[in-house]
Design goal:
Layout: H1 14-31, H2 45-56, H3 62-71, E1 76-82, E2 91-95
Antiparallel strand pairs: 1-2
């Protein structure tokens, strides 16, 4: 089997397999707390929103996202501390105990 002429091109049906995997990850973010697994142990809601935006490929409204995330039972829990990076302090959170998000997050 020859290598593809274009180094950015995938052989066989690997492009479809990759696209299916990305779509599966996008869908899973809607009903599971998976995105929080990619954040550090303590994170801001802005950092969590960045994970969703990266996977979904679309910007999210910060206020609506914050409200949805903090009102979803056991999704995130406040640590009781804030960031100290020189800018405006942001509340820190860690992953909650939820295994499913109800109601689910939507891509918008």
């Amino acid at each position: 089997m020859e290598a593809p002429d274009d180094p950015g091109r995938l052989a066989f049906d690997h492009h479809r397999i990759l696209a299916d995997g990305v779509e599966r990850a996008r869908a899973k973010l809607e009903y599971s707390p998976l995105a929080a697994a990619f954040c550090p142990p303590e994170f801001t809601i802005s950092e969590l929103r960045g994970e969703y935006e990266a996977v979904w490929g679309t910007p999210l409204d910060p206020r609506n996202f914050h409200r949805t995330v903090t009102k979803t039972p056991d999704f995130v829990e406040p640590v009781g501390a804030t960031t100290r990076d020189g800018g405006r302090p942001a509340q820190l959170f860690h992953r909650g105990t939820a295994t499913r998000l109800h109601p689910p997050m939507t891509r918008g």
